[in-house]
Write a structure and sequence with these properties.
This protein has helices spanning 3-8, 27-43, 66-80, 83-87, 97-102, 105-109, 125-133, 137-147; strands at residues 18-23, 46-47, 56-61, 91-96, 115-118. The protein is α/β, with parallel strands linked by helices and 181 residues long.
Amino acid sequence: MGKDKQEQRGTFRTNQPSVCLVTLGCAKNEVDSTHMSARLRTAGFRLVEAPEDADAVIVNTCSFIEAATEESLEVIFDLMGLKGVKSGKTKVIVAGCMPSRYGHELDRVLPEASAFIPCNREDDVVALLCAVLDITMEDLAADVDIARMTRSDTGSRQGPLSQNGDPSNGDASLGGSDDRD
């Protein structure tokens, strides 16, 4: 959406980072995606429908059965072919069951992914996305204050989180275990 269209709709933020959330799998993933969307919107991210329009695409994956894992990989590989992803403008984050189930193994299989968020760390999506996009929570908070002139959102803010690291240190980017048992 161009600057003129944003101004026509009463939004003053033209530099607001955009996120597309792609949800695959079960009803639990739908709920998890809804929660992540709410956190992102509250923090100051703009949600978009088309991956081509996003600064970051989060793929909430399923790996309950082999067919679900294959579908998740197919969608991720399709996203990796987008012009913005190839140029480095758009980041792809893999969330959900695949990072929970496969942990560090995904680093080898999906080196193009900017980060991984296992199921038990989806509440950290805002901090991780800030790290991936190299923006600060303070920058987003300033944008949220401006946005509240035009709309009302509620929710919690997340603390800082490293995008790369060891899951045993609480890093949401890699590893972890699936807490859906």
